[in-house]
Specification:
Elements lengths: L14 H4 L6 H24 L3 H29 L14 H25 L5
């Protein structure tokens, strides 16, 4: 049985610790971005029939940059306040669930792009 500690665990708030290669921010931000990116790519493909590469060419870069900035700032604020993600975990919405969902979204986005590249067009 999983044991979730709901107390706020203090972590280092030093800029170099938070943004270090093995720190709490880089992978967390990347996971969140790719989860949003994967869902958005599928939704736009269903709605407009555009593959991932067409989406990037058709105003995808500004949307990606905007999303990256907003999500990065929103993810960094609690980390710089010393709040760990594990301390905010609940049984259903745990940090482990976010970790695995992000990893599966990374694989899904790569598989989607590769499939569309090999197929020569949109999957749907």
């Amino acid at each position: 049985m999983l044991n979730y500690d709901h107390e706020q665990k203090q972590v280092s708030t030093k800029f170099s610790d938070v943004l270090a290669f093995s720190g709490p921010a880089p992978e967390r931000i990347n996971r969140r971005l790719v989860m949003i990116g994967f869902v958005t790519a599928i939704a736009v493909e269903i709605a407009k029939g555009q593959d991932v590469f067409a989406q990037i060419a058709d105003e995808g870069i500004p949307w990606f940059l905007f999303s990256s900035i907003v999500l990065s700032v929103a993810s960094l604020i609690p980390l710089f306040q010393g709040v760990s993600v594990e301390s905010k975990s609940q049984s259903f919405m745990s940090s482990d669930a976010e970790l695995w969902n992000g990893r599966f979204a990374m694989l899904g986005l790569v598989a989607l792009a590769l499939t569309e590249y090999l197929k020569g067009g949109a999957l749907v």
